[in-house]
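Why do we care about 3D structure at all? Because function follows from shape, and shape follows, mostly, from sequence. That is the central idea of this module. The next example makes it concrete: a single protein chain, its amino acid sequence, and then its structure expressed as tokens.
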Amino acid sequence: MNYAKSRIWTELDFEKDGKQVGYLHLPHSVDRSGAGTIAIPCAVFRNGAGPSSLLMAGNHGDEYEGQVALTRLIRDLEADDIKGRIIVVPAINLPAAMAGTRISPIDDRNLNRCFPGNPNGTPTEQIAYYVEAVLAPMCESWLDLHSGGASMAFMPYAQIILSRDEALNKRALAALEAFGAPLSLIQGFSDEPNMSNSAAVRNNVIHFGTEAGGSGTVNPDGVKLAYDGTLRSLVHLGHLSPRNRRIPIPPAPKKVRWIEIASRDYYVYAPQAGLFEPMVKLGDTVKKGQLYGHVHFVDDPMRLPAEVKFKASGLVVCMRHPGRCERGDCLGHLATDIKR
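And the structure:
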């Protein structure tokens, strides 16, 4: 694709061998700094010819596990360890990451609903544009590490979202298998053009990632899943040798449970505003029609609570974290087993 020039600039040389740690500079003029920039940390590892991959976290600023895993990887990895080029951006939505919020506090935009972005738009739109127009075209693979953030708690898993390109799907599935998450999910119904997976498809880049915890905390199991899976993925993508002595590659799990989100009926939404009391726990197996919980009306104590029931059967892989909810808030979702 032909893209206009981005306003984001960097001192990093993506074609230079070695390890570079620097910044992507987004021009941002404010009262405090009329000619300032938002300096987004970025590392580039290059060692000769070979594949190119983008590793990214902090798409949503309150999703911490991937941010921790990739900052650790930047410290641990050296250019001599790899082949080809790896671009690592541990907090791509830096304003949101520093504020601990899902969306940017600067422009109230959700980065993962801004692709393909705008080279002259708001700060979040410019970040999205730089990722889609500059970083993604340099790569064949894109690992996008997510978790539940402040509003959701996930059973940590790795995932792909299927596209209409069967060749890309096949390659993405191979990468997901190599990631080696004990719980691995294939999502097939999403076709949202403004998300990162669609940006990858537009650039003929495979896209895979995680939902590695959440609840507004740093889930250590999610960090381990993200870090170990990233190393196994780098082996599969041709960057790391499986016999690397300096950075041992964690063994893959002996058993993987494969799951899918088959339809929107797997999602549960709040029917009214109130205080949600769940009747099940994360990781429970539930049946269609089973009671999920109650929405209570504490400002009207004689009013009966509203029942919330599941529209499908499956495994509870995600639950809302805050108790208060508004009508339409996602209260959680299910997944079901598939054979691989």
